[in-house]
């Protein structure tokens, strides 16, 4: 058992954790940050992605004790004032969420991509989110949402393509 | 919430976060085979979830300053510390020129979230047959620096990997860094085929240096067998000069000489086909100046 102190979305949280506790369990069960999803538990789906001291990581492959003294950001942290970020509005506009389970991870990852590279291309998006899975298959809508913000390469909307076909 | 399944919980262990190499070696000497070194943890945590490993002590070396360094000495080579992540290496632009074959291999490992945790040394120490860094490192004649209670030693990556998940490392030892010698004019290319999965069904790392009769080549194949293997026949064909005819000859030699296993992922015949294709792709790229 170790006492750890982690800055989560700007708030310092202290808890006593077991050495074998995952950061994922710490965030969900101890701090009730439920936007961080538990699905595959083995680093494949990416839905437990959080930002740990500046880099995106899969929290099912990180121990809670490793986050001691560090900063963790989840999707709630991208707009501290409670408004929607531009990428979140674009997700709504383009229907980039279906069941919504994976959406927090996708929003966090695409927001981070656009912060680092405002003109991100479709290729950048594919590379940056290659560790994320959406079982509903909203990949095209996510591409549209990101393209709207980055303006790098206009992608024709799926429904426009369907209308032409 | 954990459901009690071995796939989501970790076995009990005591976590250690040493701050120096001396302290790390002390812990390994004290706990021996009860301890496991954790670099990025992406391999170890996954293995622990599946109970393939249940160490009583986990020694996290991420905060050990000596292991976080990359030292690039022009004319000599590069030394990459055990706690250096794949992202750190790729973003640091260290792997240019004669080291580009390693950059090509690392850039396609897993995904950016995994690469920001996984370390190069951890990747080698796992010694899983389909892991991509060992073929690239062997093509660069890389060595590992190992430290333990009895002192330090150096071992070539090619000798370090003895079999699948079997490496030349004592329970009280730690790999501190990987060193790659600089070779003037060395060029390289890495190719792999994964079939859409995360496993390389076949990979090849090729390096060439020197000109004319002094030309030296290395061709190292991964994913096709239990450990990475060089092909002397392919290396001989490449050393004779990179011409379209020799590339064809080398690709045939690869399919003939590289031993390929049959497993659930692919048949031996299919792997031999892949070996021919990736050899051609790598050499075609190297033929362009």
* CATH topology category name of the largest domain in chain A: DNA polymerase, domain 1
CATH class assignment of the largest domain in chain B: Alpha Beta
* SSE-based structural type of chain B: alpha+beta
Overall number of strands of chain A: 5
Summarize the structure.
Chain A has helices at about 25-30, 85-95, 105-115, 120-130, 140-150, 160-165; strands spanning about 1-10, 10-15, 50, 55-60, 70-75. By secondary structure, chain A is of the alpha+beta class. In chain A, helix 2 (about 85-95) crosses helix 5 (about 140-150).
Description:
- The complex is a heterodimer of chains A (165) and B (289).
- Chain A is 34% helix and 15% strand.
- Chain A is elongated and about 60 Å long.
- A 5-stranded mixed sheet of chain A has the order 2-1-5-3-4, with helices on both faces.
- Chain A contains 6 helices and 5 strands.
- Chain A has 2 domains: 2-77, Beta-grasp domain (Ubiquitin-like (UB roll)); 86-164, [2Fe-2S]-binding domain (DNA polymerase, domain 1, Orthogonal Bundle).
- Chain A has 165 residues and is of the alpha+beta class.
- In chain A, helix 2 (86-93) packs across helix 5 (139-150).
- With 289 residues, chain B is an alpha+beta fold.
- Chain B has 3 domains: 14-60, Uridine Diphospho-n-acetylenolpyruvylglucosamine Reductase, domain 2 (2-Layer Sandwich); 65-181, Uridine Diphospho-n-acetylenolpyruvylglucosamine Reductase, domain 3 (2-Layer Sandwich), CATH 3.30.465; 187-287, CO dehydrogenase flavoprotein, C-terminal domain (Enolase-like, domain 1).
- The model of chain B has no long low-confidence stretch (mean pLDDT 94).
- Chain B has 11 helices and 14 strands.
- The radius of gyration of chain B is 19 Å and the shape is globular.
- Chain B has helices at 21-31, 42-49, 86-91, 100-107, 112-115, 120-126, 133-139, 157-160, 232-239, 244-257, 268-287, and strands spanning 14-16, 35-38, 57-60, 70-73, 77-81, 143-148, 151-156, 161-163, 166-167, 174-181, 187-193, 202-209, 216-222, 229-230.
- The relative contact order of chain B is 0.11.
- The interface between A and B is medium-sized, with 31 and 29 residues.
């Amino acid at each position: 058992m170790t006492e750890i102190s982690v800055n989560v979305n700007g708030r310092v949280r202290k808890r006593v954790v077991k050495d074998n506790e995952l950061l994922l369990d710490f965030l969900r069960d101890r701090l009730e940050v439920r936007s961080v999803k538990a699905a595959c538990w083995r680093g494949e789906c990416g839905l437990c992605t959080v930002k740990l001291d500046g880099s995106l990581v899969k929290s099912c492959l990180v121990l809670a004790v490793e986050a001691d003294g560090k900063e963790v950001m989840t999707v709630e942290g991208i707009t501290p004032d409670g408004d929607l970020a531009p990428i979140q509005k674009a997700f709504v506009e383009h229907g980039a969420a279906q069941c919504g389970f994976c959406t927090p991870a996708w929003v966090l990852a695409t927001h981070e991509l656009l912060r680092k590279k405002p003109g991100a291309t479709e290729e950048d998006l594919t590379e940056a989110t290659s560790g994320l899975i959406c079982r509903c298959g909203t990949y095209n809508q996510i591409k549209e949402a990101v393209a709207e913000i980055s303006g790098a390469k206009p992608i024709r909307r799926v429904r426009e393509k369907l209308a032409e076909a | 919430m954990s459901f009690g399944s071995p796939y989501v919980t970790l076995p009990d262990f005591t976590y250690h976060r040493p701050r120096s190499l001396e302290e790390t070696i002390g812990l390994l000497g004290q706990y021996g085979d009860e301890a496991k070194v954790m670099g990025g943890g992406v391999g170890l945590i996954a293995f622990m979830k599946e109970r393939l490993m249940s160490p009583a002590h986990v020694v996290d070396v991420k905060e050990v300053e000596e292991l976080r360094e990359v030292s690039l000495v022009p004319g000599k080579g590069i030394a990459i510390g055990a706690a250096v992540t794949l992202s750190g290496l790729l973003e640091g632009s260290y792997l240019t020129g004669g080291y580009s074959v390693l950059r090509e291999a690392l850039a396609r490992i897993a995904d950016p979230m995994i690469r920001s945790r996984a370390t190069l040394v951890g990747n080698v120490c796992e010694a899983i047959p389909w892991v991509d860094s060992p073929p690239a490192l062997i093509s660069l004649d890389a060595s590992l620096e190992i430290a333990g209670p009895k002192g330090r030693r150096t071992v070539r990556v090619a000798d370090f990997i003895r079999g699948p998940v079997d490496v030349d490392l004592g329970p009280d030892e730690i790999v501190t860094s990987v060193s790659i010698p600089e070779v003037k004019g060395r060029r390289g290319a890495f190719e792999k085929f994964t079939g859409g999965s995360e496993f390389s069904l076949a990979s090849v790392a090729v390096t060439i240096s020197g000109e004319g009769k002094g030309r030296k080549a290395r061709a190292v194949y991964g994913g096709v067998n239990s450990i990475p293997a060089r092909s002397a026949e392919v290396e001989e064909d490449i050393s004779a000069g990179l011409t379209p005819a020799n590339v064809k000859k080398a690709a045939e030699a690869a399919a003939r000489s590289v031993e390929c296993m049959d497993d659930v992922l692919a048949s031996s015949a299919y792997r031999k086909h892949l070996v021919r294709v990736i050899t051609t792709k790598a050499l075609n790229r190297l033929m362009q100046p």
